[in-house]
């Protein structure tokens, strides 16, 4: 308790660094805690804490001490001087170790979230260590794992008949029956019966879906459910990092083929379940897709092949769009990205988008969100 209180006090001092008129104490705190040395007091304490967190055979630090330690790291990393110190002490490997450890307890999810946020802050200073320790793959694997846990509670996912090239435009309102050989799931890999949506059993893993898909065909999400708030915070932290990584020149080669693995399936589930994940996560997931397309337009066809773009269009043009300012404001960017090639534009027009957009613009449900947006714009001018 004394150690935790001491760390909380140091964290408070760091937090007030930007607002206080007193001489800055950050450098003094770094030197006192030896934060910039691999064998320093703070780095050694962090590694000891993480070793105990990620080893079931060891007794963990008290919850209050672990929480205070991770909070201190986050506030320290939020300053360039503090971030440099954490880079110098080689803390990246230990933080990624937390991300790679799969403990289902609610308390541990909080530590993973804090580790991801610290990593996000210091990767701009030390991308080499992040790449050396396969940090990006660790993030994607963690995202997939957390989405798998969410699937057990909310197994619904949007499913759309596969389009055959050269065939007439289909009516997306009626979804006429197709033969199993002419229809596939949204990944374009496995045949399914005619349906636009389906559920997973709560005991089913993602891979087991493919064996059970003919038996479970509910048409809507399970109502009244929401993602556990600590898990939602972790998902948000990972998606925020991915969105930023797409625009980092040093990450271009690494992120170019990031959509070739499990990431699209994770994004599909979030986009399919705006009610479960909430408007903020839904918006962030769509933003990740949009940012990737604008950064790598040549990869748009692969997203169309794996069905991610269809899920996104269906969520925005067939389901109810979340009545949130950020979501509504992002619609032009999303649709612009989806229509960058001829195939995307044709798919977009199949949904009769203008009918939906006019309904949104004129609906009393969405007007309050748009009104708040206009109120914000008037402060800076409509051209801002």
From TrEMBL:
<feature type="region of interest" description="Disordered">
    <location>
        <begin position="168"/>
        <end position="190"/>
    </location>
</feature>
<dbReference type="InterPro" id="IPR016024">
    <property type="entry name" value="ARM-type_fold"/>
</dbReference>
<protein>
    <recommendedName>
        <fullName>DUF913 domain-containing protein</fullName>
    </recommendedName>
</protein>
<dbReference type="Pfam" id="PF06025">
    <property type="entry name" value="DUF913"/>
</dbReference>
<dbReference type="InterPro" id="IPR010314">
    <property type="entry name" value="E3_Ub_ligase_DUF913"/>
</dbReference>
<feature type="domain" description="DUF913">
    <location>
        <begin position="113"/>
        <end position="381"/>
    </location>
</feature>
């Amino acid at each position: 308790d004394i150690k935790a209180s001491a760390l909380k006090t140091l964290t408070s001092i760091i937090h007030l660094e930007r607002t206080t008129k007193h001489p800055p104490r950050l450098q003094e705190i770094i030197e006192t805690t030896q934060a910039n040395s691999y064998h320093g007091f703070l780095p050694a304490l962090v590694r000891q804490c993480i070793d105990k967190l990620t080893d079931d055979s060891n007794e963990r630090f008290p919850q209050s001490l672990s929480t205070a330690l991770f909070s201190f790291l986050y506030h320290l990393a939020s300053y360039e001087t503090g971030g440099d110190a954490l880079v110098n002490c080689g803390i990246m490997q230990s933080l990624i170790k937390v991300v790679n450890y799969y403990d289902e307890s609610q308390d541990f999810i909080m530590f993973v979230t804090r580790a991801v946020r610290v990593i996000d802050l210091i990767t701009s200073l030390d991308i080499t260590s992040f790449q050396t320790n396969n940090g990006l793959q660790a993030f994607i694997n963690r995202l997939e794992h957390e989405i798998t846990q969410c699937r057990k509670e909310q197994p619904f996912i949007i499913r759309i008949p596969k389009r055959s090239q050269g065939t007439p435009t289909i009516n997306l309102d009626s979804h006429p029956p197709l033969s199993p050989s002419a229809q596939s799931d949204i990944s374009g890999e496995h045949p399914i019966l005619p349906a636009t949506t389906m559920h997973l059993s709560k005991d089913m893993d993602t891979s087991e879906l493919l064996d059970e898909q003919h038996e479970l065909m509910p048409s809507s999400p399970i109502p009244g459910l929401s993602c556990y708030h600590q898990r939602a915070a972790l998902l948000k932290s990972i998606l925020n990092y991915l969105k930023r990584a797409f625009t980092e020149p040093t990450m271009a080669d690494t992120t170019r083929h990031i959509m070739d693995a499990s990431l699209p399936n994770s994004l599909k589930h979030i986009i399919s379940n705006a009610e479960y994940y909430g408007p903020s996560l839904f918006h962030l997931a769509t933003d990740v897709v949009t940012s990737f397309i604008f950064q790598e337009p040549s990869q748009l066809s692969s997203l169309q092949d794996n069905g991610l773009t269809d899920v996104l269009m269906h969520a925005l043009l067939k389901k109810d769009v979340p009545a949130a300012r950020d979501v509504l404001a992002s619609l032009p960017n999303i649709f612009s990205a989806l229509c960058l090639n001829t195939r995307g534009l044709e798919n977009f027009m199949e949904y009769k988008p203008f009918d939906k957009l006019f309904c949104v613009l004129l609906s009393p449900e969405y007007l309050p969100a748009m009104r708040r947006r206009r109120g914000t714009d008037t402060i800076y001018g409509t051209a801002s």
